[in-house]
Write a structure and sequence with these properties.
Immunoglobulin-like, Cadherin-like_domain, 4-stranded mixed β-sheet, elongated, 229 residues, 19 strands, 3 domains, Cadherin-like beta-sandwich-like domain-containing protein
């Protein structure tokens, strides 16, 4: 008699976040660009209870304006007149949007932490890190993401600085946005090399072609770049 809970709340297209729970009153819903209608189906726990979407009545098929942000408030009225509200905060993505909600380098940190409006970042990786992999979240599945320069889906890191670019293209192809990431691969810190035979590298212990002798140590050209003497 006093039950103003919903048993289920189904929306199409899209997914509610968090997943529907009758005890949770607030939700978020992000819609891809190009969507013009949203279907909302509330089901009350008590068959004698009723529901209405504020400002829209009991209409289940709702017109959506692309690029709009709004709240849908579902008011449930129990048999005894008590009420309970469920709110869905809806974000309809525009077809010319370059928005992404997340950009990270796996197992490493961007500095500063990612924000949509900040375009330049740095990332420091250890000397033994040969490559890094980006991960991102684009709420609109029609958004195009290009990361360069890629080798087998990863950015190969050079000693010193490696520059990576993440290019975002809007779903309709009319707008682009580029994020720039400077990846700093740390050098090894001496004392690391060991006394070795002539022409044998004191770091990798391999015979060094075009070897260089520095401070009594032999280095191959590639290992010499990794050492801070």
């Amino acid at each position: 008699m006093d039950d103003a809970d919903l048993e289920k709340l189904i929306v199409k297209p899209g997914k509610l976040k968090p997943k529907f729970n009758r005890n949770v009153a607030e939700y978020e819903l992000v819609l891809n660009s190009g969507i013009t209608k949203l279907n909302v189906d509330p089901f009350t726990r008590d068959c004698n209870a009723s529901w209405t979407i504020m400002g829209r009545g009991t209409e289940r098929s709702l017109a959506i304006t692309e690029g709009s942000i709004f709240d849908l408030v579902i008011e449930v009225t129990a048999e005894n007149g008590s009420t309970k509200n469920y709110t869905i905060s809806v974000t309809s993505l525009a077809s010319n949007s370059t928005y992404i909600s997340s950009l990270v380098i796996k197992e490493h940190s961007l500095v500063p932490a990612f924000k949509h409006g900040v375009l330049n970042y740095e990332c420091i990786v250890p000397s033994n890190c040969l490559s890094v992999e980006f991960s991102y979240v684009a709420p609109d599945k029609n958004t195009k993401i290009e990361i360069s320069p890629l080798t087998d889906d990863k950015i190969v890191t050079n000693y010193g600085k490696t520059h990576a670019q993440v290019k975002i293209t809007s779903p309709d192809g009319t707008a682009t946005l580029c994020y720039h990431v400077t990846i700093q691969r740390e050098k090894l810190i001496s004392p690391l090399p060991v006394k070795s035979k002539e022409f044998e590298c004191g770091v990798c212990m391999q015979l060094a072609h075009c070897s260089v002798k520095v401070s009594g140590y032999w280095f191959c050209q590639s290992c010499l770049q990794t050492i801070e003497l």
